[in-house]
């Protein structure tokens, strides 16, 4: 299965971001903490050149803490400030406000010396679809300002949002890139829910996820579904379907429904804290 999804509105979004980048001081890049490298759009580095940068590892409540600690060190080595968070937690608002001010302290001091007071930091938030940008914005503002959804492609236009007295944010639609050079990147993004499920073979996706969990997180499937996970992955998927009572006529396992339950359990964190990649 080849992974890729690049609707027309994404081309428009990239063009808009290039037009608006001159207006911002800071590029805030939201990544999925379970696969930070795969969920980084390689175009953002070029887009954010000569701008202050901040990486937020969102959904860190779902990721493997040891892997997330490695990723924090990875970005710090590249001199990119990094913050881990669960965007649904409004208690993180002050931490975000503080790190933005720290990252942009040179600009703030420069403005102060020029006699410019209370000019807000203007930031652009970037990220691939379904990484949690809208949830992040809504948590920060404290009301439903940006549309949210559990499917990619909810935000399709630009909007300036006043986050606090000191920060204004330009929200942008989630953008993927036209072609994944490494299909393993596409696979991880498909598992995370970044690519539209309607164009994917969820059965094949579930088999790939089972293969990975058996290798990197042995015992997780047995713990969740009370099944024998040492069997071939197709048989494991059948057992998951049986466990979840996803059966066809004649009591045969419904593979498609079993695949849906497995992938949904992973995305919701019901399998435990799992990451799909670590730094090389």
What does the secondary structure layout of this molecule look like, with pairings?
Elements lengths: L7 H13 L5 E7 L10 H5 L4 E7 L6 H13 L4 E4 L7 H11 L1 H9 L7 E6 L6 H9 L17 E6 L2 E5 L11 H10 L9 H15 L3 H6 L7 H11 L11 H13 L13
Parallel strand pairs: 1-2, 1-4, 2-3, 4-6
Antiparallel strand pairs: 5-6
Helix pairs in contact: 8-10, 8-11, 10-11
Describe this structure in words.
The chain has 280 residues and is α/β, with parallel strands linked by helices. The protein contains eleven helices and six strands. It has helices at residues 8-20, 43-47, 65-77, 93-103, 105-113, 133-141, 183-192, 202-216, 220-225, 233-243, 255-267; strands at residues 26-32, 52-58, 82-85, 121-126, 159-164, 167-171. A six-stranded mixed beta sheet has the order 3-2-1-4-6-5, sandwiched between helices. Helix 3 links the parallel strand 2 (52-58) and strand 3. The chain starts with 7 loop residues before the first helix and ends in a 13-residue tail after the last helix. Mean pLDDT is 85; it is low at 146-157.
């Amino acid at each position: 299965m080849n992974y890729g999804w690049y609707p027309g509105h994404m081309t428009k979004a990239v063009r808009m971001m290039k037009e608006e980048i001159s207006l911002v001081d800071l590029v805030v890049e939201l990544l999925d903490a379970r696969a930070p490298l795969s969920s980084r759009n390689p175009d953002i580095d070029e887009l954010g050149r000569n701008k202050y940068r901040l990486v937020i590892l969102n959904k860190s409540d779902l990721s493997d803490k040891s892997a997330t600690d490695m990723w924090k060190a990875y970005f710090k080595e590249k001199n990119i400030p990094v913050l881990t968070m669960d965007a649904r937690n409004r208690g993180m608002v002050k931490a975000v406000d503080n790190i933005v001010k720290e990252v942009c302290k040179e600009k703030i001091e420069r403005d102060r010396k020029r006699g410019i007071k209370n000019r807000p930091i203007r930031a652009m938030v970037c990220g691939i679809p379904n990484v949690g940008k809208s949830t992040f914005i809504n948590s920060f503002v404290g009301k439903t300002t940006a549309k949210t959804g559990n499917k990619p492609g909810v935000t399709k236009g630009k909007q300036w949002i006043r986050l606090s007295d000191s920060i204004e944010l330009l929200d942008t639609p989630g953008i993927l890139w036209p072609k994944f050079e490494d299909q393993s990147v596409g696979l991880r993004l498909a598992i995370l829910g970044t690519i539209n499920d309607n164009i994917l073979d969820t059965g094949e996706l579930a088999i790939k996820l089972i293969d990975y969990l058996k290798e990197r997180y042995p015992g997780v499937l047995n713990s969740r579904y009370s099944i024998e996970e040492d069997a071939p992955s197709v048989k494991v998927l059948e057992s998951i379907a049986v466990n979840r009572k996803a059966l066809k006529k004649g009591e045969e396992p419904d593979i498609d429904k079993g695949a849906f339950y497995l992938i949904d359990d992973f995305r919701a964190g019901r399998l435990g804290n799992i990451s799909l990649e670590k730094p090389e």
